Amino acid sequence: MEKIKGGVTAAKGFKAAATAAGIKYTDRTDMAMIYSIVPCQAAGTFTTNIVKAAPVKWDQKIVKESRAAQAVIVNAGIANACTGEEGMAYCSQTAKKAAELLNVSEDAVLVASTGVIGKQLPMDKICAGITAMAPQLTDTYEAGHAAALAIMTTDTHEKEVAVTFEAGTKTVTIGGMCKGSGMIHPNMCTMLSFITTDAAISKELLQEALSEDIKDTYNMISVDGDTSTNDTVLLLANGEAKNPKITEKNADYEAFVKALNYVNTTLAKQMAGDGEGATALFEVKVIGAESKEQAKVLSKSVITSSLTKAAIYGHDANWGRILCAMGYSGAVFDPEKVDLYFESKAGKMQIIKDGVALDYSEEEATKILSEPEVTAVADVKMGDATATAWGCDLTYDYIKINADYRS
């Protein structure tokens, strides 16, 4: 596997475009389009929130029932959530407009929205945006990059990645982009993520690969403990790499799964590190667990602890907060056997041994915790299972951003 420059246009046969439709923002692009030159197999995973946005319901139906997908229309600024029958009608209207301009069927068009909940989409602007983007579609890196920029809301930067791997004698590419900064606390995933691949693979294995992979990637991030109404991951495969079609769990499938995991892990970490107001990516590794599930529960509990997140912002090695968060996680372990380490590019330091603080340098610990990427490693000494979760620090700016979000 090799990492390459690119995003949603890296795979063969995929094009993208972006435009400034003026849906909410007046100084930037706010609509994106992804298009495949041939029909794709589609897989998807969606929010577990009972309150689901209209685009989520639309895409769930397309992924489950449609023979193929060929285009995705995304808007930023308005979520089209809690909008009733009118919101669903707008999904249909969006798909119909794109289908007419792209010469594809309406049920081959996926839609996604992100932004303020409860507002209706300005369909005149949505349709004008689709009309503007259709003739601009290209397969260049710049087009994919522009699309990644257009789907942002409170994100501070675009998020994209691409890799290649070998399947048979062919080079296969997987690329992706996502947006996510706040309302990040998944039980599936939480954000919008769009992944494209030129792999030839069956719909069943495509869906299985995605559904399994999110458990260790998007499901292991948290910014603020809020699960969104619009969470969507879409994976499109158009077969343009011309590799022998993957229809069973062979070596090519394992290579595909490995590459997909890299893409999803990279995007997940980019979202966690770009949490609203954040200054640091906070990674928590639990090792020595008796089961994978135990390790996941413990690591997620730590990254969602507001007190721990605040300590990371203050570069404070307040290890008691970490042990406390592990203790209320619901997972059973012996706190008197836990070893805890902090590490970053500035170094690595053991803070506690067998649940008791060591005689460490607070100054050195603060230096380690002052880096933009910080890791806490907790060894519970119960087995060989491990899990990693990603979050961010909690800052004053998180409150400011969300207090002013609708204004």
Description:
32% of the residues lie in helices and 28% in strands. With 407 residues, the chain is an alpha+beta fold. It folds into two domains: 2-273, L-amino peptidase D-ALA esterase/amidase (4-Layer Sandwich); 281-403, Ubiquitin-like (UB roll), CATH 3.10.20. The strands form two sheets. Strands 1, 2, 3, 4, 5, 6, 7, 8 and 9 form a nine-stranded mixed β-sheet that branches. Strands 13-12-11-14-10-15 form a six-stranded mixed β-sheet. α2 links the parallel β4 and β5 (109-116). The longest helix has 23 residues, at 251-273. The radius of gyration is 22 Å and the shape is globular.
CATH class of the largest domain: Alpha Beta
Shape: globular
The number of domains is: 2
Proportion of helical residues: 25-40%
> Could you tell me the mean pLDDT?
93
Family: Belongs to the ArgJ family.
EC number: 2.3.1.35, 2.3.1.1
Subunit structure: Heterotetramer of two alpha and two beta chains.
Organism: Roseburia zhanii
Helix and strand topology:
Layout: E1 2-4, E2 14-19, E3 31-46, H1 54-65, E4 69-78, H2 84-102, E5 109-116, H3 123-133, H4 141-150, E6 159-167, E7 170-179, E8 192-197, H5 203-213, E9 232-237, H6 251-273, E10 281-289, H7 292-303, H8 306-313, H9 319-327, E11 339-344, E12 347-353, E13 356-357, H10 362-369, E14 373-379, E15 385-392, H11 396-403
Parallel strand pairs: 4-5, 8-9, 10-14
Antiparallel strand pairs: 1-6, 2-3, 3-4, 3-9, 6-7, 7-8, 10-15, 11-12, 11-14, 12-13
Helix pairs in contact: 1-2, 2-3, 5-6, 7-9
Pathway: Amino-acid biosynthesis; L-arginine biosynthesis; L-ornithine and N-acetyl-L-glutamate from L-glutamate and N(2)-acetyl-L-ornithine (cyclic): step 1/1; Amino-acid biosynthesis; L-arginine biosynthesis; N(2)-acetyl-L-ornithine from L-glutamate: step 1/4
Organism: Roseburia zhanii
Keywords: Acyltransferase, Amino-acid biosynthesis, Arginine biosynthesis, Autocatalytic cleavage, Cytoplasm, Multifunctional enzyme, Transferase
